[in-house]
Design goal:
single chain; TGS-like; 16% strand; 747 residues; elongated; six-stranded mixed β-sheet; kinase activity; 24 strands
Length: 747
């Protein structure tokens, strides 16, 4: 049995709840009548019925049943944001689906896949709230990633949070503070960025009401006390303008608007002045009914009328007609000297512009045929880019995100007149990176409006910038304190890593060349000893210190010689190694390597110097590639070299093809890691197997023991991967050996 939208199989409602549902449902139909077809209305009714037919009573922390909240959210979605059928249905249903009263596939069949997709996103957001009335910092990344997938998810959640804020008086005091704080630092900035200024303003006032109640009540009281005098001033100011607008035969609406309590409080703080000294407590708004082709001309006509009557302040002119904000906001603002020598802000816009200002992105869909604005697309793309950066911690991420949401913009120009949007506070260096990362890396300054400027100069609206570059310029660590945009900061960090890698390569080659002159080979074992001795964090850090001169090459030579002296002394004391345990045993033999030309590089290039990289020690049979070094030679790496991903991603232009020629007879160096039990004679057993049984030349063996077990490294010369495989298999069969594996020098 059905009575209206109510059905028998639903939760029990008292009379006040039934009346509240009916009122909200009727309001919803009235608010959406211009955007819903008869079929759409039927779908909305079905969604309302589904929201009411709950398997069990679900009440919100406010005490209200969920269906009432869903209807109120749907009303905001329709009347205050201006969305249509799909979003209204999603606002009504996502709570029902979350509590498994309706299956997602059933919803998709009834209302379409777009509803299912948005509801899925909304459910992900609501899941973050399942344990508390506000979400924790580490969940913000998940929240914003969901937002970035479909902007309608943002808009519906904004409506949800606004309705929650409106009913916050029904919540517990602790929840009131948490919810209000969250709305203030996340949702109000989001509403601002999406151009939903009415919602943003209400949120900010609502937040202040619960987080700074004393100041809120004080300002509200003073506004009420001065309302009569303020209304008289507004009427006196408007009267002569209204007369001239009527004479010009313009269709218009003109009214005064008292500024929000939150914005007045901000003025008191920023201007360090009491309420009585804040001059712009209100603004005059002129809204024109103009044809699309006449919009800008009519707005400037009104500007001319206003400034003929009242003296303007040229520095306070804001022209968002010629260049709208990235959230779509279009308007013409000016400040003029009115009666009683008081400054008054006048905002001039058309009905279309006003709807965009009030309803933001949703109004763009209405006027642009469903196409999003490029600025908003760029913003959402930027959210995704930031979210995918794993290096940022959650707290910094939220701080940066909030700052970016509230960022104002500056509009600047290239030398040929192309417009560029940058956040307020952007510098010459930000502009250079916005043009191209290559331009940014070589930027030494600029000509701003024809005058020389440093990379640090902050840009202003209307600046024309010509970037000055130098081939010798390279990014520096100090640049991170100069740039203001996340794009520039990311590019600077990336460039610094690349520079550090080049410096490390140069340091490696310098040290290797100098040591070679002293008949010392820079092998992987020595590199590890040096990194440990000089307390470097990584191998690259050690070589970079060499390149920068912070570690003298002569000191490395002294260290190597001291190590040799210690080894020689140890050999004299240890003549019968085969009778000793593995404890701290080290043995070295001369390098053995043939010089056959066993490689074909990049279609058999001739007269190209190459070396086998020490970081991964490739041998015949390995999958390999070539990397052009700073000196112009080529280093051969294994495809699975630990450094390969970084080299290929950052220096792809320096990668060349390489492959082994058939029938090669050269020998190659390989290092094995061996673990096992620390038995007497283990060193002898392993070394005899390698050198005598398998006839493989051994370069060095180093074995350390600890509490009955050992770990060793053995470096040998083999012909190919097959020989190495046989060796590994044989060593694994030695009594007491647990494991054998090939390792890179970086391990």
């Amino acid at each position: 049995m059905r009575k209206g939208i109510f059905m028998e199989n639903q939760v029990v409602l008292d009379s006040s709840e039934r009346n509240e549902i009916i009122v909200n449902y009727r309001n919803l139909l009235r608010a959406s009548k211009n955007v819903l077809s008869d079929e759409d209305v039927a779908h909305v009714r079905t969604a309302v019925e589904m929201a009411l037919s709950r398997k069990k009573e679900i009440r919100r922390p406010s005490g209200k049943i969920s269906a009432i909240h869903a209807l109120q959210v749907a009303n905001i979605v329709a009347s205050e944001i201006g969305l249509g059928r799909t979003s209204i249905i999603c606002a009504l249903l996502y709570d029902v689906v979350q509590h498994q009263d309706v299956e997602k596939n059933e919803m998709a069949q009834l209302f379409g896949t777009s509803v299912e997709g948005i509801v899925t996103g909304l459910m992900k957001v609501k899941e973050l709230y399942s344990k508390d009335t506000s979400i924790e910092t580490e969940n913000f990344r998940k929240l914003l990633l969901t937002f970035a997938q479909d902007v309608r998810v943002i808009l519906i959640i904004l409506a949800d949070r606004l309705q929650t804020l409106r009913s916050l008086n029904l919540y517990q005091p602790g929840d009131q503070q948490k919810i209000a704080a969250e709305v203030g630092y996340l949702y109000a900035p989001l509403a601002h960025r999406l151009g939903l200024y009415a919602i943003k303003s209400e949120m900010e006032d609502g937040v202040m009401k619960y987080t700074n109640r004393t100041m809120y009540n004080s300002i509200a009281k003073k506004l009420n006390e001065t309302k009569k005098a303020r209304d008289k001033f507004i009427n006196d100011f408007i009267a002569p303008i209204k007369k001239e607008l009527e004479a010009a035969e313009l269709k218009f609406d003109i009214k005064g608007r008292t500024k929000t309590i939150h914005s007045i409080y901000n003025k008191m703080i920023n201007q360090n002045t009491p309420f009585e000294k804040v001059y712009d407590l209100f603004a005059i708004r002129v809204i024109l009914d103009s044809k699309p082709k006449d919009e800008k001309a009519d707005c400037w006509k009104v500007y001319s009328i206003v400034t003929d009557k009242y003296q303007p302040n040229p520095s306070r002119l804001r022209d968002w007609l010629s260049i709208p904000k990235s959230n779509g906001y279009e308007s013409l603002h000016t400040t003029v000297l009115g009666p009683e020598k008081k400054w008054v802000e006048v905002q001039i816009r058309t009905q279309r512009m006003n709807e965009v200002a009030e309803k933001g992105l949703a109004a763009h869909w209405k006027y642009k045929g469903g196409e999003g604005e490029k600025g908003m697309d760029d913003w959402l793309a930027n959210i995704r880019e930031v979210l995918e950066n794993p290096e940022r911690n959650a707290v910094d991420f939220i701080d940066d995100f909030k700052l970016n949401l509230y960022d104002q913009e500056v509009f600047v120009f290239t030398p040929i007149g192309d417009l560029r949007r940058l956040p307020k506070g952007a510098t010459v260096l930000d502009f250079a990176f916005d043009i191209h990362s290559g331009v940014g890396k070589r930027c030494v300054g600029a000509k701003v409006n024809g005058k020389h400027a440093s990379i640090k100069q902050v840009l202003k609206n209307g600046d024309q910038i010509e970037v000055v570059t130098s081939k010798t310029q390279e990014p520096r660590i100090e640049w991170l304190n100069v740039v203001a945009t996340s794009r520039a900061r990311s590019k600077v960090k990336q460039a610094l890593k690349e520079i550090h890698y080049k410096e490390a390569e140069f340091g490696r080659e310098t040290l290797s060349r100098r040591l070679k002159n002293w008949k010392i080979e820079l092998n992987d074992q020595l590199i590890h000893q040096l990194v440990k001795h000089y307390k470097s964090k990584t191998i690259n850090d050690f070589f970079r210190e060499i390149a920068l001169g912070n570690i003298a090459v002569t000191s490395v030579k002294d260290f190597v010689n001291s190590q040799k002296d210690e080894e020689n002394e140890k050999e004299k004391q240890d003549q019968a190694t085969h009778q000793k345990s593995a404890t701290n045993f080290v043995a070295n033999v001369d390098d053995q390597s043939d010089s056959d030309d066993v490689l074909m590089i990049d279609h058999n290039l001739k007269n190209v110097d190459y070396v086998l990289s020490k970081c991964c020690n490739p041998i015949f049979g390995d999958e390999i590639f070539g990397f052009v070094s700073v000196s112009g030679g080529i280093k051969i790496h294994r495809q699975n070299c630990p450094n390969a991903p970084e080299m290929k991603s950052k220096f792809g232009y320096r990668i060349v093809n390489a492959k082994w020629t058939s029938g090669a007879t050269a020998s190659f160096q390989a290092t094995l890691k061996i673990t096992g039990a620390d038995d007497i004679g283990i060193v002898s057993n392993i070394s005899q197997l390698i050198t005598k049984e398998l006839k493989i030349k051994m370069r060095s063996i180093s074995i350390d023991s600890d509490e009955g077990s050992f770990e060793g490294r053995v470096t040998v010369f083999v012909n190919d991967t097959d020989m190495l495989g046989r060796l590994i298999k044989k060593v694994k069969n030695v009594k007491g050996v647990y494991s054998v594996s090939r390792i890179d020098s970086t391990e």
